[in-house]
Amino acid sequence: xxxxxxxxxxxxxxxxxxxxxxxxxxxxxxxxxxxxxxxxxxxxxxxxxxxxxxxxxxxxxxxxxxxxxxxxxxxxxxxxxxxxxxxxxxxxxxxxxxxxxxxxxxxxxxxxxxxxxxxxxxxxxxxxxxxxxxxxxxxxxxxxxxxxxxxxxxxxxxxx
Length: 160
What we know:
Layout: H1 3-27, H2 33-48, E1 50-54, E2 57-63, H3 64-74, H4 79-116, H5 130-137, H6 142-152
């Protein structure tokens, strides 16, 4: 495999992994925020963590999840331990950074929420009815429309 083929293969993999990550984002968008974000981070770590394929040539990398799956399915080589170690290391680093991000974001969000003040709850008892809203929009009473139509002998069309 030449270097151009190697880079082309990685380019195709990155595009496919971004597509998978986008689908995962769409699947998890309904979840609670503090469950959704770690699951998305886990998917990103699984898709985008590389590992060394050949220990003698440190420049040849492959996706860790692919190395793990192929070594488990085909039962060849001992690259599975290196791939699992790389996955766990990248996962640990990613989740530590995520926890740092949450530790900074949480007090800021609480401060911002208290800074805005309490939100006024809509009062359902004093809310105008649909009839009142429509009467405000149509200030002319219906009877006056009929009177105008009778005086000019015009046809009266109902308003919707």
